[in-house]
Amino acid sequence: MIDWLRRPALDAAIELGDRRVPIVLKRQHNARRLTLRLAPDGSEVRVTLPAWAEGREAIAFAHSRSDWLAGQLAKLPVRTVPEPGGEVRYRGTALRLAWEAKAPRRPEIAGEALRIGGPQTGLETRLRRWLEGEALRLAQADMHEYCAAAGLEPVPVGLTRAQRRWGSCSDKSRIRINWRLVQAPDHVRRSVVAHEVAHLVHFDHSPAFHALLARIFEGEIAAADRWLKEHGRGLYSAFG
Predict the structure, then answer these.
(1) Partners of 19 in the beta sheet?
(2) Confidence class for position 240, pLDDT limits 50, 70, 90
(3) Of 75, 84, 149, 233, which has the most beta carbons under 10 Å away?
(4) Helix (H, G, I), strand (E, B) or coil at 126
(5) For residue 168, what are the CA distances in angstroms to 11, 108, 127, 153?
(6) How many helices and strands, by DSSP H and E, does the chain display?
């Protein structure tokens, strides 16, 4: 069980370089210690508290790690806006954005380019909608494959824009996948879908869960996890 705490009236933010970043506290009753992390987009500092910890202690903990947090913030990729002649990442490949006003509005892959038309105003929105549609299409196909491998009936798939989790399975009858995974190599996205399908059988991370995941996923889970650890934050650099 997780309880969100009200932000304290004082010291609810921390100065990291030239930025003032909010501190968000989250109480997790099974936590054994204070843990600290920076949101993938750098928008907030998140501190998880055990049941016994006090809010002011968590705030002080964040301030004591300000140098580390500033270093993490500096490593975040610079926010980019898709522009004609720039790049759009799709399934692990950087496609050149070829925009022509008179071309069809729906994006179309042509070799190493992504062709799109319509007014330049709203270009980012149209690209994002297309990527989200592709993310859903691919994740649904992955889900059908892994459910069949696990001996399960297919379940609905939804997309999430979460900043922390790549996938979720909350009620054993539906899975949700972060749409930004459409930018990652296929084996990375597929590892997340396989992970959530395995949760349809084992709603934990027990040895039985890992055994099922290893059986249904064709690749190396460790390699996919390593890619997300090293490159995952970069998936947040475009499209807000």
Answers:
(1) 16
(2) low
(3) 233
(4) helix
(5) 32, 30, 25, 18
(6) 6, 12
Longest dimension (CA), the chain: 62
Pinpoint the alpha helices (H) of 51-122: 55-64, 66-75
Question: Quick check: 73 and 17 in contact, CB under 8 A?
Answer: yes
Q: Among residues 134, 132, 129, which one has the least CA distance to residue 109?
A: 134
Hey, what domains does the chain have and what are their CATH numbers?
2-75 (no CATH), 87-127 (no CATH), 132-236 (3.30.2010.10)
Query: How far is the first Cα of the chain from the last one, in angstroms, to the nearest whole number?
Result: 30
Instruction: List pLDDT tens digits, range 144-171.
Output: 999 999 999 999 999 998 877 899 987 7
**Residues 6 or more apart in contact with residue 160 via CB below 8 angstroms:** 167, 168, 176, 177, 178, 179
* Contact of 156 with 32, CB cutoff 8 Å: no
- Distances in Å between the Cα of 111 and the Cα atoms of 84, 98, 123, 182 are 16, 11, 20, 18
- pLDDT, tens digit (0-9, with 9 covering 90-100), for 131-147: 999 999 999 999 999 99
Q: How far apart are CA 211 and CA 5, in angstroms?
A: 37
CA 236/CA 232 separation, integer angstroms:
8
Q: Which residue, chain included where needed, has tokens 């300000």?
A: 66
For 39-131, list the strands marked E by DSSP: 45-49, 87-90, 93-99, 108-110, 113-116
